[in-house]
Amino acid sequence: MSLCISDLLKQSSARHDHLCPRQVLGVRIGLAGLAALELESPVSKSTALIIIESDGCFADGIEVSTGAAIGHRTLRVNDFGKIAATFADVKTGRVIRISPELNVRERALIYAPDEPRHYFAQLQGYQVMADSELLRIQEVALNPTLEELISKPVVRVNCDYCGEEIINEREVNVNGAVLCRTCANDGYYLIKPAPAKLCAIIEHPSK
Q1: Which residues lie below 8 Å from residue 95, measured CB to CB, with a gap of 6+?
Q2: Residues 181, 172: contact at Cβ < 8 Å?
Q3: How far, in Å, CA of 187 to CA of 132, rounded?
Q4: DSSP one-letter code for 189
Q5: Residue 108 to residue 128: CA distance in whole angstroms
Q6: pLDDT tens, N- to C-terminus, the chain (207 residues)
Q7: Does residue 47 contact residue 72 with C-beta atoms inside 8 Å?
Q8: Longest distance between any two alpha carbons in the chain, whole Å
Q9: Is residue 121 within 8 Å of residue 21, measured between CB atoms?
Q10: Which site in 9, 62, 91, 123 is 20 to 30 Å from 68, CA atoms measured?
Q11: What's the CATH number of domain 2-148, 2.40.160.20, 3.50.50.60, 3.90.180.10, 3.30.1330.130?
Q12: Where are the domains of the chain?
């Protein structure tokens, strides 16, 4: 297992100019998720969906260890600012969430007693700690459901307000109107200023 981790860490660090503890956690969590669900890398749309709760170096560790990719619709990023990943087995419907144990930083120091710098002690410790000491695995249920997240990529509709095309069944119905999430005030940006017609659609049901 150590050789596998070493190779994967080389792949992850090659995307940066360094190797950091979050990359190690990404690799370890990725491998643990595959093992727990008895899946193989690279995952595919027919085998798994992985949802990570932060981007950056952690994401690279997940990608190299699982083969998941946003472009293949096997990886999603829900940025909650947490080092955690949820693994959904598409065939069985089983879903698990894996995160570091709460005191993992302190535990890692035990594995590098001669390293006074906590960052580098964590870098070393995370690579050799047992999964049972490093990680917490929880059975969870997805919200929205796995079927809703996977969706039907061939479905296309247009937003009744802005007219932009919406794919993957990501539209919402608001007072009888089909809207994209931005026009429904559920997007990551706001239209400035909000047009009066859009406010009327959202605030008043169609008659």
Answers
A1: 86, 87, 88, 89, 139, 140, 141, 142, 146
A2: yes
A3: 38
A4: S
A5: 9
A6: 444 899 999 999 999 889 999 999 999 999 999 999 999 999 999 999 999 999 999 999 999 999 999 999 999 999 999 999 999 999 999 999 999 999 999 999 999 999 999 999 999 999 999 999 999 999 999 999 999 999 988 899 999 999 999 999 999 999 999 999 999 989 998 877 766 666 666 666 554
A7: no
A8: 73
A9: no
A10: 123
A11: 3.30.1330.130
A12: 2-148, 152-203
Quote the tokens at residue 112: 């590098």
pLDDT at residue 47, as a whole number: 98
- Model's pTM, two decimal places? 0.89
Please report, as a single letter, which amino acid is at residue 45. K
Q: What is the pLDDT of residue 207?
A: 43
Do the Cβ atoms of 33 and 50 come closer than 8 Å?
yes
Helices then strands, each counted (H, E), the chain: 8, 9
Residue 16 amino acid letter: H
Structure tokens, 122: 């964590």
Alpha carbon distances (Å) from 116 to 19, 104, 171: 18, 17, 52
β 48-52/75-77 pair status: parallel
Q: Which residue has the tokens 């990501």?
A: 170
Q: Give the pLDDT score at 197.
A: 65
